[in-house]
Amino acid sequence: MADQDFYTVLGVARNASNEEIRGAFRRKAMEFHPDRNKNPDAEERFKEINEAYQVLSDTKKRGQYDRFGKAGVNGGAQGAGSPFDGFEGFGGFGDIFDSFFGGASANMGRQPRRGGDLQQQVTLSFEESVFGAHREVDISRLEPCNHCSGAGNEPGTSVDACADCRGSGQVRRSQRSVFGQFTQVAPCHACRGRGSIVNSPCSICRGGGRERRKRRIEVKIPGGVDSGMQVRLNGEGDVGSDGGGSGNLYVSVNVQEHNLFQRDGTDIVFNLPLNIAEAALGVEKTIPTVDGFDEELKLPQGTQPGAEFRIRNKGVPHLHSNRRGDMRVHVDVRIPSSLSGHQRELMEELARSFNGDEPTRPRNGKGRKRSRKKETEEPVQNDQNSDDSADKGLFDRIKEAF
Questions:
Q1: Is this entry keyworded Metal-binding (predicted)?
Q2: Does any domain span residue 268?
Q3: What gap in Å lies between CA 318 and CA 223, rounded to an integer?
Q4: Domain carrying residue 312
Q5: What is the pLDDT of residues 248-289, one digit of tens each?
Q6: What are the backbone angles phi and psi of residue 284, rounded to the nearest 5°?
């Protein structure tokens, strides 16, 4: 098979890309490496695979090979470069070899492992989310075993160093191949990487060193939290193993809706209903706040629907800060869907006033004859102030009607 085509050796087409050639080489090398494949011809096949890759992975050599065959590359790539250069995607041949035989695990002994994190949820009222609260949550977590103090052995019994690994938790085995001597490092099976042997496991934790207990944890929730946020309590999760640290407890917050207020970031939004007379004339309103104290807000005449007014520092506190957002009062001018008879008369009178017609008429709906002026009578100058007073009086009557 020494004269076999390099493309055939790797099992790729002649127009294969560099990535395809590299992938094919890795698969073939894994299959025929002498330390993994014990067939008599595995070593020879591995050399051919490496030779083919050394040529086809080099653009210049590949071009010469395609034109002139092996003669164009002076007999291939023998002696050119390291026979393990093709494993660069695995961090070098040493890394991939270690992944086969365990040699990469120079620290395969029992390593400290951090404990698991725990999750819990609390529900807060709107006011509690603004000003903060204290809650108690019940959790079930792994803690050091009380009976054996986390050692894993029954109290009063001995813990001996492992005879196989001599307390290191690792065993090393050397293998010799055509490429030299390789050392395999793996966790000790006798002690499972602990380095010690427990002759009499704890009767409570069965040698694990941990047991599950129920605990009630007090959680301080800061002001300004919102639904979906989490409060982290460091070290309140499961205890670690082999000297590892404890996990954390994460408390998720769910905030109930309020019947008056909505939240927008650090601002609190309050919808203030107004009737059309109040919006037109202006009015002073008492506004409730989340603090529990009312605020007086004066709305000017001609307040438009959708207008907003701010009451400073009556919103939600910024997390980890003394600053607070604002309270935004959103004006909702409500148009009545039905009117009483008196309200309708007033609205019709207001409409005529806006259109410049006579401001009043008898309530029986009958027209009133106008007196003709004498031709010699001087024209009367309109008094704008009197018209304004009439409109204002009409507005007041409408306001009272609503």
A1: yes
A2: yes
A3: 8
A4: 261-334
A5: 999 999 999 999 999 999 999 999 999 988 998 899 999 999
A6: -110, 125
